[in-house]
Amino acid sequence: MVDQAPALDLSKYIEKRFFGERPHIRGHRVPIAAIVYFGHENNRSVAELMDDFTLSEAEVLAALLYYSEHKVEVDAQEAAYNAVPIEDWIKHGKDAFLLRRDDAAPGSE
Predict the structure, then answer these.
(1) I need a labelling partner for 22 at 20 to 30 A (CA). Which of 47, 62, 73, 94 fits?
(2) Cβ burial 35-61 (10 Å sphere, 16+ → b, else e)
(3) What is the CATH architecture of 9-71?
(4) Among residues 107, 103, 106, 90, which one has the least CA distance to residue 20?
């Protein structure tokens, strides 16, 4: 059995206060998924992502590490976020994302 290193505390760089609990870079409101997906789709290096998103090296590395440790959760949140029709965004604003979450309270739609 391989011992697993304890998860790092990335709260200095990552927060979930905005965007319906979507994790994002603290102080920049750039979603973790945006950084990771853009970097993967465009084969970007850490230095290029720093330039693309105007982030520090530590912020980009924190985003990549956070994603690697929470991939299933982040991917599920992004799928739900992307499934929201534009009409719901117009009608409900920033709360539209919450209408598509599996854990939303019954009757909240």
Answers:
(1) 47
(2) bbeebeeeebeeeebbebbebeeebbb
(3) Orthogonal Bundle (1.10)
(4) 103
pTM for the predicted model, two decimal places: 0.75
Other beta carbons within 10 angstroms of residue 63's beta carbon come to 29
Buried-exposed string 74-109: b where 16+ CB fall within 10 A, e elsewhere:
beebbebbeebeeebeeeeeeebbbbbeeeeeeeee
User: In the chain, what are the domain boundaries?
Assistant: 9-71, 84-109
Q: Are 29 and 13 in contact (CB under 8 A)?
A: no
Q: Which pair of tokens denotes residue 46?
A: 């850490």
CB within 8 Å of 1: residues ≥ 6 apart: none
Residue 37: which of 83, 77, 96, 84 has the closest Cα?
77
19-50 pLDDT, tens digit each:
767 899 999 989 999 999 999 999 999 999 99
